[in-house]
Amino acid sequence: MYVHVPFCLKKCFYCDFYSVPYSKTKTQTYIKYLEREIQEFKKLIANRKVNTLYLGGGTPNSITEEDFQKIYQNIYDNFNLDLQEFTVEINPGAGLSPEFLKNIGVNRISIGIQSLNNKSLNSIGRVHNADDAINCLKKYSKYFDNLSCDLMLGIPYQTKGDITYFIDRVAEYIKHISVYMLEVPQNSKLKSMINSGLKVASEDELADLYIFTSNELKKYKFKQYEISNFSLPSYQSKHNLMYWSYMDYIGLGPTACSKIGNIRYANTNDFYYKKEFQELSKNEMENEFIMLSLRLSTGLNLEIFKEIFGANFLDKYSNKLKPIEQYFDVDNSFIKIKSEYLIFENSLLVELLDF
Ligand SMILES: C[S@@+](CC[C@H](N)C(=O)[O-])C[C@H]1O[C@@H](n2cnc3c(N)ncnc32)[C@H](O)[C@@H]1O
Ligand code: SF4
Fold first, then answer.
1. Are 27 and 136 in a shared domain?
2. Spacing, Cα 261 to ligand 2 middle (Å)
């Protein structure tokens, strides 16, 4: 289960995720909408267990403990929770104490650090600086063993030295790291800053930074398990693995999506959101399954594909695979993109799938 908390203290210049400025009154409205949505989903998944809970955003730690508790209590009272993982996304510039989160059962924290170069952080509109981020890591590491952080590649003023420094500083605290290549949304403040001359990495430079970063992470024994995600053994995100394995999930809050069987529910992109739904055709589900599982280092499970879609993947896609087979490894039960080409998954999918 995912809960989108749509508040931020300030909008970062590159960010396209749905959020509004934090306000106490708006939080009450949000909680009211969430309660209504919980009642709708409660009926739909009455006999099922929730194994992972992920509060993301936005900035979940921009709201008060009291409001956070209300959200958690509502979920706890209405669903059958059997939590193996309970993650909360934290921004180093916002609040919520680690003691509080630990006490309500959170066992994994994901910290949006992005960079430890103050000039870079400032240029992308982050509310915190490098010291705030390190202090946040230190504080949370006293309470949580399972810590993750986000690193962005390709942002202004970033050098390879910055990336090495970042990894060297955070490695002792974290078990997991998400590495995101900068995307510049149209109409974002960053886009207009770039138009006025601010420099960010080109596509080729981004690919080079990504390869450099994954090699740096190897020095600390971080193993890549998905295009953007690296972890120490057994610290992969159970929640995110569930998406990539195409299991059912529900998402609450504005812009959140759910998949239950062949039905996709998508909440609209506004504060007073509505739910839209769509029945997925077999072909759409097959495409989604392929797209998601090829993101993983382990790749697509051929037996599971056969079980769900009733076809042998290698036979069915043999013509399309032939010209791009050098990018894949196949063994008895899996087909996977070779690790050095994972970054090019989208281009390979264009060759493989009919969209
Ligand atoms: C939705 S944000 C939530 C984290 C938290 N709000 C924070 O920023 O500290 C999750 C992560 O997505 C990444 N992200 C957001 N927008 C991005 C963009 N335009 N390009 C690349 N990565 C992005 C950032 O690394 C961010 O930490
Ligand atoms: S704090 Fe996170 S969610 Fe909010 S604007 Fe920045 S990157 Fe986006």
1. yes
2. 31
